[in-house]
Amino acid sequence: MSEALNVYLKILVEFLFEYLVFVALTAANLRKRDFFAFRAVASVLAIFAIAFPLSFVYVAIGETVVGRIAIYVFLYAVTVLLALWCFDESFTTALFCCSLAYTAQNFTYKLWLLLWVVAENVGVDSGWGASYELFYRIIYYTVFAAAAVGLYFMLIGKFTDRLSNTRYDTGMLAVSLIVLLVTVVLCSIEDVYFDKLAVEKNIFDDFTLIMLRETGNIFSLVCLAIVMFLISATVRQREMKQEIEFLQHTIEQGGRQYEMRKDIVDMVNMRVHDIKYRINALLAENGSVSDAELTKLKNSVFIYDSVADTGNTLLNILLSEKRLYCEQNGIKFSCMADGGELSFMSDGDLYTFFGNILDNALEAVKNVTDQSKRVVNLIVKRRNNLLFLQEENYFEGEITFKDGLPDTVKADKFNHGFGVKSIRLIAQKYGGEVSMYVTGEIFHLNVVFSLN
């Protein structure tokens, strides 16, 4: 009983505490179920309660590789189930987060062993005496806390805020299981055999054994670092795939919207044409209506018939739509575009490309309080074998850039910010180069296409 209690307090409780710290870090941004606080507290109490009878199993078979692997895999599986009970996420999301947490815990533990073997070999603990356990724990948890903070800011915190939105597939599930297998097997084999060696012989009396132990620790750290990098790369790859799928869908939607709006604009133009002729007829026939009133009426519908001929039907339609928006919101829109040079773009790409450019500009200008600065300029012109696109607009506030693109100011960064990404994606599709920058209160967007 006393041996099992000692194992529980010194091994299992310590492991579970460290492991649950990393579970909390990796799962912090997952969708929480109702009564989350109650579920979380109950889950922590449950896993510590389960670990106590497991300590008797540890005493019986914990000194064998298979036994130790079985014990830690069991605790890992229990954690996954409790995570599903606390978070409104899929099984693969819970599995993925717990795998990352388990790997991170083992990484900090191996880092400690690497440092402690050196410290003990040079006699750091020689004067501790009866306070050995106290000093050991203070240093141990200081190193653990520093390693946990470092791992969070260098790796874990960079993508855990997006795990809840990430769709997983069988590939992600396979990565999670491989992570678990490599971590458990590697660490269990090393720990079991060096524990046996430490009982039989003081490894610090033999330099060869010290080097062997340190080599094992370094090898474990490298493997665990690779595993965590694999997890991070897998998440980024999956996220990029989702973004590409979303952008492709956006481009397809742009093509469909163009067809619908083309019909609407054609219909509006026909109706406006009819209204203009009827106004002219009234002006000629009805002398009782003042010229000023009829001119005012005529001017009120003039905007609907002021479509610039850029040489590209689609661009004409898009510019007409944006011109109406500018008229309604007090925005001055200046456009000089040689749309005939844009024939290399498909309709869907062109509509999405210019639609996003103008939508972003108009959204920024609409928030400018100075009416004189509610200005958007768009130029598309050819010089030799190059086609230049320049867009400029005023803005208020601050624009931060990430990877050369303005970072969205909206709270939901996962579902916003695709506009500028689609601009760059479409430009790159046709061999174009995009640059965006700010000078004072003006935002600049430049695109260069080669027409060769």
Topology:
Layout: H1 2-26, H2 36-61, H3 65-86, H4 91-121, H5 132-154, H6 170-200, H7 207-285, H8 291-300, H9 313-329, E1 332-337, H10 347-366, E2 375-383, E3 386-394, E4 401-402, E5 405-406, H11 418-429, E6 433-439, E7 442-450
Parallel strand pairs: 1-2
Antiparallel strand pairs: 2-3, 3-7, 4-5, 6-7
Helix pairs in contact: 1-2, 1-4, 2-3, 3-4, 3-6, 4-5, 4-6, 4-7, 6-7, 7-8, 7-9, 7-10, 7-11, 9-10, 10-11
Task: Kindly describe this structure.
The protein is an alpha+beta fold and 452 residues long. The chain has 2 domains: 2-243, no CATH class; 306-450, Histidine kinase-like ATPase, C-terminal domain (Heat Shock Protein 90, 2-Layer Sandwich). Helices cover 65% and strands 10% of the residues. The protein contains 11 helices and 7 strands. It has helices at 2-26, 36-61, 65-86, 91-121, 132-154, 170-200, 207-285, 291-300, 313-329, 347-366, 418-429; strands at 332-337, 375-383, 386-394, 401-402, 405-406, 433-439, 442-450. The strands form 2 sheets. Strands 1-2-3-7-6 form a 5-stranded mixed β-sheet. Strands 4-5 form a two-stranded antiparallel ribbon. A hairpin with a 2-residue loop joins strand 2 and strand 3. Helix 7 (207-285) crosses helix 11. The longest helix has 79 residues, at 207-285.
Which properties best describe this structure?
alpha+beta, two-stranded antiparallel ribbon, 10% strand, 5-stranded mixed beta sheet, Heat Shock Protein 90, 452 residues, 11 helices, 2 domains
